[in-house]
Automatic annotation (TrEMBL), chain A:
GO terms for cellular component: plasma membrane. This is Branched-chain amino acid transport system permease protein. Its main location: membrane. The chain crosses the membrane at residues 12-29, 60-82, 94-115, 135-154, 175-198, 256-275. It comes from Streptomonospora salina. InterPro entries: ABC_transp_permease (IPR001851), BCAA_transport_permease (IPR052157). PANTHER family: ABC TRANSPORTER PERMEASE PROTEIN, BRANCHED-CHAIN AMINO ACID TRANSPORT SYSTEM PERMEASE PROTEIN LIVH. Belongs to the binding-protein-dependent transport system permease family. LivHM subfamily. One of its GO terms (biological process) is amino acid transport. It is a multi-pass membrane protein. Keywords: Amino-acid transport, Cell membrane, Membrane, Transmembrane, Transmembrane helix, Transport. One of its GO terms (molecular function) is transmembrane transporter activity. The keyword Cytoplasm does not apply. It is found in: Cell membrane.
UniProtKB/TrEMBL annotation, chain B:
It is found in: Cell membrane. It holds the Pfam family BPD_transp_2. GO terms for cellular component: plasma membrane. This is Branched-chain amino acid transport system permease protein. GO terms for molecular function: branched-chain amino acid transmembrane transporter activity. It is a multi-pass membrane protein. Residues 1-11 have a biased composition (Basic and acidic residues). It comes from Streptomonospora salina. Keywords: Cell membrane, Membrane, Transmembrane, Transmembrane helix. The chain crosses the membrane at residues 34-55, 67-85, 92-108, 114-136, 195-214, 242-263, 275-304, 325-342. Residues 1-22 are annotated as: Disordered.
Length: 283, 360
């Protein structure tokens, strides 16, 4: 029973990280119909900036702030410079552009900070059954989700962003600057991505550190249904728990296969994810 | 759409002195039935490869061989993505299956000839493709991409789970017979290997090209353009999707088998996400929707990395910069191609050829 509780707690804190990254994918997918494969690279650069800033100033929290700010800028720049020109063409084009960006940023990270791992600390104590660092992960992702919900639900900016995503033409006619709203969506998503990166990277940071986390995040987003932020959160937690149990009871090498199994089982029952509404389409 | 013929006609058009009769030759070539045309083109290509490797050294032979197997894998992906419109980000997984099948067969059944190993590989990877295809047939777009990506990451971790059988993270190393003794002075081992890989590749390509030129190919393209309309027109949507997946998995497995044969090893690290993404990138770089795109993509994949290394040497760059130069270059190229020339290198080549023809 003790092991079960440990695995559950561990799964929850891991799941929070997947949920945050999945959330960042879903926000972008909702707004622009693009799965942003460059998300782990945007987060990676943010974490490296945090590393550099904390090294220079000696403060984890200054680095943390720098990471979020970097995420904001990178997300907005990506939408403006790379996604807008291919927007509305085939979905594959946008996927390829983000894959290209992924390669470029990972390569640049290797060039600037080398491919060797640097040690990168936790914000607080990470030892023990459910450590302060675990609480921090769960708490910060929960806070981010609540803030996001508040933004979309209760602020004029959120309303405009939703309008721009769901009815771009109607929104434009009502005076919403649709392009600006899409940029804002990418920026917010990349801030959440940067948060996920900060939680996922310790104890070491190297150019491929977020690859595996990203795979689980995309699995979480798909399981939850790419259109639904709550689905992303639930998918992240589901995946975190499932993989923690598999890792604990069956062996850690099987975690990625477990993610695949969860994905296949969920999608064969609901091909558009757990929390998607069935869509009708004109032929 | 299948432009083996396009290229034949342009190369003949561009031949010395052939202004007036050239189009008729091209037309006559295109009028040949696919079952004659593709094998003829393959025989010509094989002769060209044998001629080419007879003047190059061992390193270049291996590189020519790698262009071959990458081309096969990318052509299989072309059939899946470019023709049937299903995005797979996990095709490296089938190359993984192919490579490990050959490695296990050579290690455990050394008496079996290579061609039989290849056939067993194709059967096994088609079987794997059937499983995956059937499990994912109802998925579309990003959902399929996510599921296949998880496959690409999950499968190689099996090697760590079963280290006695699959060699753990070091993988399996084996040696194959080189050129037969009777040809000892005539061809070198690497020439023989490159020729074997290209023979396999070309046979695979003939099959892929024939399929995509035929009824099944038309069905796939109808599916890609509009799934609901294709269904209404009586095309069995699910079955066609699964068949495309099976064929494409077979090509991927065979490509992996060729890679293992060429390198003499199968290691999990060479079948990571990077491989799957590189295959997709090369496909788009070469050009979607044409089998020639696979050729350009494979050449780009092998030689861009090489040029990157040479360039880094020439400029005597810092090793951190040098190691990461090819990947950055590849990424930049990918973005530029999509932004500036969405039809890829093949589209670029054919519109250049078109403007040359018009200009004359």
């Amino acid at each position: 029973m003790d092991q079960f509780i440990d695995l559950t707690l561990n799964g929850l804190s891991q799941g929070a990280v997947y949920a945050a990254l999945a959330l960042s994918l879903v926000i972008i997918y909702q707004a622009t119909r693009v799965v942003n494969f460059a998300q782990p690279a945007l987060a990676l650069i943010s974490v490296y900036i945090a590393y550099t800033v904390s090294q220079a100033t000696g403060s984890y929290w200054l680095g943390f702030g720098a990471a979020l700010a970097t995420g904001l800028v990178l997300g907005a720049a990506t939408e403006r410079l790379l996604i807008r020109p291919v927007h509305g063409r085939s979905p594959l084009n946008a996927i390829i552009v983000t894959l290209g960006l992924l390669l470029v940023l990972q390569g640049l990270a290797g060039m600037i900070w080398t491919n060797e791992p640097h040690s990168f600390g936790y914000p607080m104590d990470y030892r023990g059954r459910f450590s302060a660092a675990d609480w921090f992960a769960l708490g910060s992702v929960g806070t981010a989700a609540l803030l996001l919900f508040g933004l979309y639900r209760f602020t004029p900016l959120g309303l405009r962003m939703r309008a721009a995503a769901f009815r771009p033409e109607a929104a434009r006619l009502s005076g919403v600057r649709v392009g600006l709203m899409l940029t804002a969506g990418w920026a917010i998503a990349s801030v959440i991505g940067a948060l996920a990166g900060m939680l996922a990277a310790p104890p070491f940071i190297f150019p491929n550190v977020l690859d595996e986390v990203f795979i689980f995040a995309i699995a979480a987003a798909v399981v939850g249904g790419l259109e639904n932020p709550f689905g992303a959160l639930a998918g992240g937690v589901l995946l975190g728990l499932g993989m923690s149990y598999v890792s604990g009871y069956a062996g850690p090498e099987l975690t990625t296969l477990a993610a695949l199994a969860i994905l296949v089982v969920v999608l064969s029952i609901r091909p558009d994810g757990l929390f998607s509404r069935p869509t009708a389409r004109k032929v | 759409m299948v432009s083996l013929s396009d290229h034949e006609s342009t190369s003949r058009d561009g031949g010395p002195g052939g202004a007036a009769p050239a189009p008729t030759l091209g037309d006559r070539w295109r009028a040949l039935p696919a079952l004659v045309r593709f094998p003829l083109a393959a025989v010509a290509a094989f002769a060209a490869i044998v001629a080419l490797t007879s003047v190059t050294g061992p390193t270049a032979d291996l590189r020519i061989g790698s262009v071959g197997y990458y081309m096969l894998a990318i052509a299989g992906l072309q059939l899946l993505i470019g023709y049937s419109g299903q995005i797979s980000l996990g095709h490296g997984a089938f190359m993984f299956i192919g490579a490990y099948t050959v490695a296990l067969l050579v290690l455990n059944q050394p008496a079996l000839p290579l061609w039989l190993n290849m056939i067993i590989t194709v059967v096994l990877s088609c079987g794997a493709g059937l499983l995956v295809g059937a499990a994912t047939a109802r998925l579309h777009g990003p959902y399929l991409a996510g599921a296949t990506l998880a496959l690409a990451v999950g499968l190689p971790s099996l090697t760590v789970r079963y280290p006695e059988l699959l060699g753990g993270s070091n993988g399996l190393a084996f040696s194959t017979r080189g050129a037969p003794a009777s040809l000892a002075g005539v061809v070198t081992d690497t020439q023989w290997q490159a020729a074997a890989v290209w023979l396999t590749t070309l046979i695979g390509l003939v099959v892929l090209a024939t399929i995509s030129a035929g009824r099944l190919g038309r069905r796939m393209r109808a599916l890609r353009d509009d799934e609901s309309a294709a269904g209404l027109a009586g095309i069995p949507v699910g079955r066609t999707k699964v068949i495309a997946f099976v064929i494409s998995a077979g090509a991927g497995g065979l490509a992996g088998a060729c890679q293992a044969y060429l390198l003499g090893t199968a290691t999990p690290s060479s079948f990571g996400v990077t491989l799957s993404l590189s295959l997709l990138a090369a496909l788009v770089l070469g050009g979607l929707g044409s089998m020639w795109g696979a050729f350009f993509g494979a050449v780009a994949l092998v030689y861009i990395e090489l040029w990157g290394e040479d360039l880094a040497h020439a400029l005597s760059l810092d090793s951190n910069v040098a190691n990461n130069l090819p990947i950055v270059f590849f990424g930049v190229l990918l973005i530029l191609i999509i932004l500036v020339w969405p039809r890829g290198l093949h589209g670029m080549a054919s519109s250049l050829a078109g403007s040359v023809r018009r200009g004359r």
